Amino acid sequence: MSALPRPPARSSTTAGLRVRGMRRGDLDAVAAIEREIYPFPWSRGNFTDSLSSGYDAWVFEGGDEIGTALLGYAVVMWIPDEAHLLNLSVAAHAQGRGVGRAMLDWLVRDAARRGARGMMLEVRPSNERAIALYRSSGFDEIGVRKRYYPDADGAREDARVLFRRLVGE
Questions:
Q1: What's the pTM?
Q2: Hey, which end of the chain has fewer CB within 10 Å, N or C?
């Protein structure tokens, strides 16, 4: 097995957003956004575990137009030649402003630059806005994970599995 690709050493910018590695000091703000926007959010511990496991974890901060606060975050797990997008989230006050698209574009470019042949993710079928974003960004459905997500009253919701080939990006 080959070594996993290294993340960028410094922060960068994309579409007016500053991108940097998530730090433990960000976890309270990240967990607060997560609780605000999802009925079944990741816990602070899920993010702590992601950092401890060496997953790529990014925060995206705004510029003057939207504010300087944390606008979104993402967690990516690397398989030697593929990136698995585990979490891509935009703060409620920043949704509908192109922040999610800018974040996804940056993540795709970063993964391609680092040699990923593709990017995979799961999404709830009920999350129509996210599905529209992923489809318009070149992701295709490749499968379904039955009863993947928790849902109301102890029920479970399937996940759509999407994939985008990155070769030649």
A1: 0.88
A2: N
